Amino acid sequence: MRSKQLYEIIDGVAPFALSKEYIARGAYDNSGLLVDCGEVTGVLFSLDLSLAAVEEAKKLGYNCIVTHHPAIFAPIKCLGEDSAVLACARAGISVISAHLNLDAAEGGVDESLMQALGGTEPIACEEQLSAGAYGRVYDVEPQSFEAFIGHAKERLSAERVISYGEGEVRRVASFCGAGFTEGALAFAAANGADTLVSSDAKHHLIAAAVEKGVKVLLLTHYAAEHYGFCRFAEKIKNAMGTVPCAVFTDRRFL
């Protein structure tokens, strides 16, 4: 299998056109085939392109890494010895990144987060795209905030969480990755969410949520996305026939 064929398989699950829709709305992304070394004989899925992931690919004898976060995001001015991109190029390892398109795709990272937290169908979506969405509000089975946190930690294998508030959880707003913005909080409150789940939140937004009576559960960025990324990896693996695949989990960030 060639790297461009793998790109097409990924495009069928998480269309790269969704990233272009985000960009047209003022966002920034750099998803796609970022390092192309040709033939693919084994694929490692890793949320980030790290030196640890590159070493894992080498150990397995795989020559392609598929990431969620773009391996090349901002323009690169130099490649040092600590560059995972340089390490891939030297080892003949291709890299494909599926970022905003995978966040929003049907069955993608954001929808998977909702399902892991006990939601089934969104009441509202903050960012509705042509074939997917980002940011969801949905009902869950009524439960204490403490029970909800325990459930989230178990389903997401989350080892580090921060929570604010107390009381019953009935309606949740969730945003995978760094989605806790002023707009997200306004969207959550407007749709009656009593609990907001995301990561990488700034203090003034946490304080604003608490003032509105909205409970907050902060996951690590990694934990908020790794669960959905693993489900994506399974879909791609099933479409690749005999090409071996594996998922790299960096527990330092859960």
Global geometry: elongated
CATH class of the largest domain: Alpha Beta
Distance between the termini: 33 Å
Please tell me how large the radius of gyration is. Answer: 19 Å
Under CATH, the topology of the largest domain can be stated as Udp-n-acetylmuramoylalanyl-d-glutamate--2,6- Diaminopimelate Ligase, Chain: A, domain 1
Biggest β-sheet strands, sense, barrel: 6 strands, mixed
Biggest sheet strand order reads 5-6-8-9-10-7
Q: What is the count of β-strands? A: 11
The proportion of residues forming helix, as a percent range, comes to 25-40%
The name of the CATH architecture of the largest domain is: 3-Layer(aba) Sandwich
Q: What fraction of residues sit in β-strands?
A: 15-25%
Order of helices and strands: HHEEHEHEHHEEHEEHEHEHE
- Give the helix tally: 10
Tag the structure with descriptive keywords.
10 helices; Udp-n-acetylmuramoylalanyl-d-glutamate--2,6- Diaminopimelate Ligase, Chain: A, domain 1; six-stranded mixed sheet; 39% helix; five-stranded mixed sheet; 24% strand
